[in-house]
Amino acid sequence: MSHNTQKKPVIAVVGAGPGIGEAVARRFVAEGFVVALLARTEDKLQTMATGIDNDHGKGTARYYITDLRHEDSVKSSFASIKAELGAVNVLVYNAGARRVNGRSILDTSSEEFENFTKINLFGAFWSTKCVLPDMLASGKGTILYTGATGGLRGSAGLSSFSPGKFGLRSLSQIVTREYQEKGIHAAHIIVDTPVDGKLIGGWSRRQWQRQGEPEKLEDVESHLSQPADLAQIYWFLHTQPRSAWTQELDVRAQKVSMFSKL
Ligand SMILES: NC(=O)c1ccc[n+]([C@@H]2O[C@H](COP(=O)([O-])OP(=O)(O)OC[C@H]3O[C@@H](n4cnc5c(N)ncnc54)[C@H](OP(=O)(O)O)[C@@H]3O)[C@@H](O)[C@H]2O)c1
Asked: What parts of the sequence cross the membrane (predicted)?
């Protein structure tokens, strides 16, 4: 049964959490999209979908419980999205898994390496495969991959994170090489900065307090990128004219130097 009776364009936010994921969802919904929110935790998804519906009208957000480490889970969610909302016009692959305090290779288990790489990379491959056929059939589609500094630099302590993010960057370039000519605009966004979400935002604030840097607490926006400001970039990429498509873009808050550890 269609839950998108007005046939609005559809965005799938894969890895929909309270940071970049929700902000991107809200940005596109404000422009007339319906959003499919994909993540593992039902209560968080439900709260997010209800909040978006309350702010933008009933039926603008639906959630799909998905574990990106499993191909069947990804396929089943995208099949439900197609049945309930219609073909996906914009895919944002936003999930990422890392430790805040990194560990050396010898202290990193194979299980963690596998699990995190599935989230950082395999889920993106599977999600891309799910949306491409319909995008190609309609001759257009946007696929945006959320990257990180770890996608460009292999820093100590990030062995279970960085290889997957490197791969994600490569995947984005390959999508471009294989499908751009057929109307698919893929872009990789290098988030080279801490984001003011729950995890890193909260951790940064605690660090500043511990280290006696209260001035940073009064000037948060120049140290932590705001999810809503980042979401503006995703919208900008999606709405670029065909004569001027960006394939990769980096972003950081004003006082964050190039190549942060994220
Ligand atoms: N936060 C930063 O400072 C920062 C800096 C640089 C780059 N980035 C990149 O930006 C992206 C978004 O970061 P964010 O912190 O703003 O996150 P977010 O959008 O708040 O949430 C991402 C969501 O991904 C979901 N996810 C994780 N593993 C999953 C799995 N196996 N299956 C399904 N969903 C899964 C999580 O929800 P569930 O746990 O409910 O599944 C999480 O809430 C990530 O790719 C990250 O690498 C972030």
From this structure: none
